[in-house]
Write a structure and sequence with these properties.
Blueprint: E1 7-8, H1 10-15, E2 21-25, H2 35-42, E3 49-50, H3 74-84, E4 91-95, H4 104-113, E5 118-121, H5 124-130, H6 161-164, E6 169-172, H7 176-180, E7 197-198, H8 214-222, E8 233-236, H9 243-252, E9 259-260, H10 264-268
Parallel strand pairs: 1-5, 2-3, 2-4, 4-5, 6-7, 6-8, 8-9
Helix pairs in contact: 4-9
């Protein structure tokens, strides 16, 4: 089943046939990595599988220069999808309880980079509940499938550290105090990549945790585009997770072709020779 838009509304998802979509619960708490799985076990969308940010959407065997949440190998993620019951032609919808920021947008980006039809549930778990739709504690019974051989992440969707400083526009999704280098609760060095601009991911959402209208996002990101080109934008954050939220917001806005610097700030500062900028 083809999903044409990067966001899907709760009633639309509820109307989809269970065999046409793989729903992925991506709830996660950086302060308590086990919490998302516990909450999933208590109640989740019917048929949803659970994706753990550290275990399923990251590969911590990668070196520190790949950041705190290194991307897994494409073949490993493809095998994970197959174990969850994904097969060619099946759409994927990711959700969390943080407006897509932790880590539904990351799952969406990874699925899209593999070539899957994918979307994020707008408003996440809260929107589903507000729509009066059911939850369950029943574990899904979807049968595992055979991995599709040769699946690769789209090479044009990412940028390496070597090319980052030459990018026409770097957008950093972290909150303003972290970007400025005034505070740094997670990484050993405070600040940002020289020349980067700050676009906190939280500004993509309204007071209900839903994405702002496409025209509002288009105006906000359009003011940051280098020479009006979305494909000149590279997104980063602390570890390559909330950066995907800004990338998703640009897709919602109809601004296509921006890329991800997956190691993000944590990977950048793992090499002490790289330059750092701070705001006074």
């Amino acid at each position: 089943m083809n999903i044409k838009q990067p966001l899907i509304e709760a009633p639309e998802l509820a109307a989809m046939a269970p065999e046409a979509v793989l729903i992925v619960d991506c709830r996660f708490d950086l302060a308590d990595p086990a919490q998302g799985r516990r909450e999933y076990a208590k109640a989740h969308l019917p048929g949803a599988v659970y994706a753990h940010l550290d275990e399923d959407l990251s590969d911590h065997m990668q070196p520190a220069t790949q950041g705190r949440h290194p991307l897994p190998q494409a073949a490993d993620f493809a095998a994970k999808l197959a174990r969850w019951g994904w097969r060619p032609g099946l759409a994927l919808v990711a959700y969390d309880d943080a407006g897509g920021a932790l880590a539904a947008a990351r799952c969406w980006w990874m699925a899209r980079a593999l070539g899957l039809d994918a979307a994020v549930l707008d408003g996440g778990l809260g929107a589903w509940i507000s729509a009066g739709l059911p939850l369950t504690d029943r574990m899904p019974e979807r049968a595992a499938c055979e991995p599709v051989p040769g699946m690769r992440f789209d090479a044009s969707a990412t940028l390496s550290a070597d090319g980052l400083l030459d990018a026409p526009r770097i957008l950093d999704a972290r909150a303003a105090p972290r970007f400025a280098g005034q505070v740094e609760p997670l990484d050993p060095v405070a600040g940002h990549v020289p020349g980067a601009r700050n676009r906190p991911f939280a500004e993509n959402l309204d007071e209900h945790g839903r994405f702002r209208p496409a025209e509002t996002l288009r105006a906000a990101f359009g003011a940051l585009l280098p020479e009006g080109r979305a494909d000149g934008v590279v997104h980063m954050c602390g570890s390559g997770v909330t950066a995907c939220h800004n990338l998703l917001a640009m897709e919602v806005a109809g601004l296509h072709g921006s890329r991800l610097f997956a190691p993000s700030w944590s990977g950048w500062v793992a090499d002490a020779s790289r330059p750092v900028e701070r705001n006074d």
